[in-house]
Design a protein that fits this description.
Length: 325
């Protein structure tokens, strides 16, 4: 009965990529409609086909290439939120990239954002799930392109676009290459996060905190390799957006048993649980919770605490937080 309780808890998710949450059938349908051949993206059984992180990124971008209009993003938003709501998610933040939504042009970005927000507002009314947006630049597209994303973020910062982040290939360039964009986002009042410590080690996480001033870290799990860094993260209340299922499928850790989430928590680091790109990794928020409960013997009270940590670390305003709680 405890597993049942864990599975059915109301959940807060902080780390979800908008395109990465697209169901493969949804992408396949759009591809057919638009006559785009992306058959290499799928396995025979209809799931996404990739092996390893760099291949994942290229399949992700190929799948994303069929999302061509604001209306496509509105439909995608509805599909994502239906799936999340089914899994008990009551509040979620998703990463949305101007690179994919208008190519970094501010006016085009506004059109995409408007469409996404309308779909999100309808989902909130119909399904009781709240979405907020975190504008995201893509690391392997480089610092110049990131500035265009930061400008889009700054121009639309407010009660719905609440944060700025960076995803993509952590092995390209340095966190500090993106300081200009992060400064622009911070000055616009946005809260900051970045992917770090998924592929590179502890120094990447340290640099994210020190050079970019982020208050959350996407993944950050390899911080476990440096006790002094864990102490620093704990002391500064930096929150990790941990995605255990993603880490196992992409091979950061061999199995959930080898995953450091419990050790990080024991070191006093604030951890939360998210899915990253659920259909790519054959996971859901419910699966993540149940798998952690089974593997680590965590009971419902542990997950209630994780959720409170996530809600406290959400980038939305206090009124939104209170409405969710
Ligand atoms: N984009 C989508 N998922 C990602 C991940 N796990 N790491 C970096 N960039 C991503
Ligand atoms: Zn991610």
């Amino acid at each position: 009965e405890d597993l049942y309780e864990v599975a059915n808890l109301p959940k807060v998710e902080l780390h979800l990529h908008h395109e990465g949450a697209a169901p493969p059938q949804f992408i396949r349908g759009l591809a057919r409609e638009k006559n785009v051949d992306i058959s290499k993206v799928f396995r025979k059984d209809g799931s996404y086909d990739f092996q390893g992180f760099l291949h994942f990124l290229s399949v992700y971008e190929a799948a994303t290439s069929v999302l061509k209009t604001p209306d496509d993003y509105a439909c995608l938003t509805t599909a994502i939120l239906e799936e999340s709501a089914k899994n008990g998610v009551v509040y979620t933040e998703s990463f949305i990239s101007p690179d994919f939504c208008g190519g970094g042009d501010v006016e085009a970005w506004r059109d995409y954002l408007h469409a996404i927000r309308e779909a999100a507002d309808a989902a909130e009314r119909d399904m009781g799930i709240t979405l907020r947006g975190v504008v995201t630049c893509v690391r392997h597209f480089g610092p110049e392109q990131a500035k265009a994303s930061a400008l889009c973020a700054a121009e639309t910062a407010g009660d719905w676009i609440v944060g700025f982040g960076m995803g993509g290939d952590e092995n390209k360039g340095k966190q500090s290459d993106f300081a200009y964009s992060y400064d622009m986002a911070r000055e616009a009042g946005l809260k900051l996060t970045t992917h770090a410590g998924e592929w590179r080690g502890p120094s990447e996480v340290r640099e994210a905190v020190e050079a970019l001033g982020v208050i959350r870290i996407g993944h950050g799990v390899r911080a476990i390799e440096d006790p002094a860094l864990c102490e620093m993260l704990a002391e500064r209340d930096v929150v990790l957006e941990v995605c255990p299922g993603s880490n196992v499928v992409l091979g950061v850790y061999k199995s959930l048993r080898d995953h450091p989430i419990a050790k990080l928590k024991d070191r006093g680091v604030k951890v939360t649980v998210s899915t990253d790109d659920p259909p790519f990794f054959h996971t859901t928020m419910r699966d993540e919770y149940v798998n952690l409960a089974k593997t680590l013997n965590w009971d419902a009270s542990v997950f209630r605490d994780l959720n409170q940590t996530a809600l406290d670390a959400a980038f939305c305003d206090g009124a939104t937080r209170d409405a969710v709680a």
